[in-house]
Amino acid sequence: MKLAVRSRDDARCPRDRGAVMVELAFILPILVMLLVGIIEFGRVYSAQVSIQGAAREGARSLALRESSGAVNAAVQGAAGSAQVTSVTQVACPAASNGSTTAYATVTVNATFTFSIPFISLGTRNMSATARMRCGL
What we know:
The mean pLDDT is 84. This protein has helices at 14-63, 68-79; strands spanning 83-90, 103-113, 123-133. The protein contains two helices and three strands; from the N terminus they run ααβββ. It has one domain (15-133). α1 runs antiparallel to α2 (68-79).
């Protein structure tokens, strides 16, 4: 009479399946957190690029001597989904002499809220400043 002998390499062995499930239970949360961290970094970078572009658009509007409301509208329009909290404007002087070059400066402040599960990083403040030469 022959006995069927199971080897440890047999994929149908229940003990091996249990070990794989335990290993997966240890590694899967780390991999998910790593993936979410990469996505959140992308979101932060995108928000920073958006507010930098918004500051540039605001400085361009201010350098063309547009009104303060038009500058704020240009900043809000270019900010996209970034949550702009304040816009600081330093306008061109009324009359600039030929020896000095005057610049219009716009600083945009925004907030970003992280949404990583199980970790509370809260809200972070971001800022971007742009300068453009007046009258261009």
